[in-house]
User: Which sequence fits this backbone?
């Protein structure tokens, strides 16, 4: 009995240590738990963003002007401009690539060298040149061919909208935007996150900005749940796939 107990404990430790996601182990028998709403700047991996900045420029005062530079509303600009403001990020990705390359190379070479006279040695050393025709002492030929074909087809499509919050205002006025969203349907949890840097001028009058106008954009769409567990190979199989050389 003691020997059996000693064997069971290491096996349990290996099984628990091999689990890549202990959260899923605690959610067995129920739906995945959703993350609480929190300040994105307090996330463990968040850090302030630094980018190359131009020299600061002082705006000329215009005391008699009724229109503010960069404003799209007469009285007040409704677009996001400061830390804590919300902005809607519009993601519309339709990417298609079709590449095809054909390569054909052929090479043939023939060399013939004769030495009828070699400083008279052909007459002085008859045993060395016995059976040798000096007129065709060396003859070589070679041929090579190479044919290659490569084809790549890719098609991706993503269309969605996500509200983000301004977490930083850089010295040149650009806005650092970060947003996340979680949707739980049945036993599957889907998480969407987006972040990037945008110019205030690229934000439309309805307070939306397209993802292709954001620099250093990062878009992530994934999740966890029962379907994800079935589609993901076990951790032992992943280790073998990584270590096996064949």
Assistant:
């Amino acid at each position: 009995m003691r020997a059996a107990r000693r064997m069971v404990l290491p096996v349990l430790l290996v099984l628990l240590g091999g689990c890549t996601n202990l959260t899923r182990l605690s959610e067995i028998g129920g739906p995945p738990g959703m993350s609480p709403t929190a300040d994105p700047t307090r996330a463990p991996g968040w850090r302030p963003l630094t980018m190359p900045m131009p020299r600061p420029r002082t705006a000329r005062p215009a005391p008699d002007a009724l229109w503010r530079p960069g404003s799209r509303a007469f009285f007040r600009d409704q677009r996001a401009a400061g830390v804590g403001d919300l902005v809607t990020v519009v993601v519309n990705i339709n990417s298609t690539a079709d590449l095809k390359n054909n390569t054909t190379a052929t090479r043939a070479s023939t060399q013939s060298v004769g030495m009828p006279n070699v400083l008279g040695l052909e007459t002085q050393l008859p045993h060395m040149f016995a059976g040798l025709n000096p007129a065709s002492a060396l003859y070589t030929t070679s041929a090579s061919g190479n044919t290659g074909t490569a084809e790549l087809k890719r098609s991706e499509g993503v269309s969605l909208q996500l509200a983000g919050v301004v977490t930083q205002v850089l010295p040149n006025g650009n806005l650092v935007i970060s947003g996340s969203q979680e949707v739980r349907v049945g036993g599957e949890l889907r998480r969407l996150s987006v972040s990037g840097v945008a110019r205030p001028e690229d934000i439309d009058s309805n307070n939306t900005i397209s993802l292709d106008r954001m620099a250093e954009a990062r878009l992530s769409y994934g999740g966890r749940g029962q379907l994800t567990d079935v589609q993901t190979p076990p951790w032992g199989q992943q280790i073998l796939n990584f270590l096996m050389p064949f």
Summary: Helices lie at 2-18, 22-26, 121-124, 226-231, 235-243. The longest helix spans residues 2-18.
